[in-house]
Design a protein that fits this description.
Alpha-Beta Plaits; Udp-n-acetylmuramoylalanyl-d-glutamate--2,6- Diaminopimelate Ligase, Chain: A, domain 1; 395 residues
Length: 395
């Protein structure tokens, strides 16, 4: 019991936290122009307290450092383009210096989090209560591999536990595997150092055939984990490429409302559910809405895809004038709820995700949601009253 308590109190390294994020929201999914993953910090550093925010704002960095956090996880990257210099005369340079001087590591989960199953666009779809949600623009499917390992019965549980972090999550099920019994034979030759048996003698061992689904891009790491955990000098394993397709990977989402509603009513409901003070609307207010396409942040570039799938409405943010005119011409409604309102959902969601997964992995680290950011836009009414674009504002 005492050793278990010590294990539970182990602090994660920065690389452990990055690995947890990468397993659920692989950084490899990010758009080619994006910059995600570890931006500042030493992978071996122990993490005591984490803050989650949408933006790496100066106020957010100050809040994180003041609260004693040594990791800030954000959606938008601080370092987006290559830096020619790190100078306090620029906002980015000043923030980089502030983070380093304050001992604050930074990790960004941007378009990988937008695209990944269960990521930001799925959060937005759930928030407005869409059904039968699927990617709006499919960009591919991840290749799957059946990873088969032969392991002595006594070491089965340990090897399986070592491989579970690399196993594919199937829908809402994780740690999926299959095992069956059999008998392995081998004859150690001169120079071998067998864990079981002796050189020159045929050995027969009761073994289990352990099978897991692994994403092809993670197969190399799974093999390394196997070699570290397996008791044999030369463990036997097979890798079978599969024709099975995993869930489609794509930009945005499209789904259906349980009941049709007018565009006016849909706009009011979405504004309420996102906590917006207002939304901008393009289209006939009495138009009937049932199929909704969406893309968090700036997603008007997916307008043609929304039309292609037969959506009645595209929900996004940062809609420009000519994009609104294009929507009118193509006969699709638009709702602009703002960049902040369609993305700030990630803060609480990522905080909860990290808290659960760190605890599940046996790590102890506090995870906090920032209180130091709010929508930069303010709505000014005709009577001169100012209202924050977003009701969930800063401290």
């Amino acid at each position: 019991m005492h050793s278990f308590t010590l294990w539970r109190m182990h602090k994660p390294r920065l690389s452990d936290v990055v690995g947890i994020i990468n397993k659920k929201y692989p950084f490899a999914l990010a758009e080619p122009w994006d910059n995600v993953g570890l931006q500042i910090g030493a992978p071996s550093e122990q993490i005591n307290k984490i803050m989650v925010a949408l933006d790496p704002l100066p106020a957010v960095l100050e809040e994180a450092i003041f609260l004693g956090c040594n990791l800030l996880v954000t959606h938008h990257p601080l370092i987006f383009s290559p830096l020619r210099q790190i100078s306090s005369s620029t906002v980015t340079g000043s923030s980089v210096l502030k983070a380093i001087q304050g001992g604050l590591a930074l990790v960004a989960m941007h378009t990988n989090y937008d695209i990944a199953f269960g990521g930001l666009n799925d959060l937005l779809a759930a928030k407005i209560r869409l059904n039968e949600v699927r990617p709006l623009k499919t960009v591919g499917h991840e290749e799957l591999v059946k990873f088969v390992v032969f392991v002595p019965t006594a070491h089965h549980a340990a090897v399986r536990s070592a491989l579970f972090p690399y196993a594919v999550q199937i829908g809402n099920y994780r740690d999926c595997s299959f095992s069956t019994t059999g008998q392995g034979t081998f004859l150690p030759l001169a120079g071998a150092q067998p864990a079981v048996g002796a050189v020159g003698s045929l050995e027969q061992v009761e073994e289990l055939r352990l099978e897991l689904l692994v994403h092809k891009k993670r197969l190399g790491k799974a093999i390394k984990a196997l070699l570290s955990a397996h008791p044999y000098e030369e463990p036997a394993f097979d890798c079978y490429p599969l024709l099975n397709e995993s869930l489609p990977i794509g930009l945005g989402r499209v789904g259906y409302l349980s009941e049709q509603v007018s565009l006016r009513g849909c706009a009011a409901t979405i504004a309420e559910r996102l906590g917006c003070g207002s939304v901008r609307m393009v289209g006939d207010p009495e138009r009937i809405i049932r199929t909704i396409a969406l893309c968090s942040g700036s997603g008007a570039s997916l307008l043609a895809d929304a039309v292609r799938v037969g959506a009645d409405l595209l929900l996004t943010g940062d809609v420009k004038y000519h994009e609104a005119r294009d929507a009118e011409a193509q006969g699709i409604a638009l709702l602009d709820a703002g960049h902040f309102a369609t993305e700030q959902l990630m803060v609480d969601a990522v905080r909860d995700f990290l808290s659960v997964e760190l605890d599940r992995a046996g790590y102890q680290a506090e995870v906090h949601a920032t209180k130091a950011e709010c929508d930069p836009f303010t709505t000014v009414t005709t009577n001169g009253l100012c209202e924050s674009k977003h009701a969930l504002c800063c401290m």
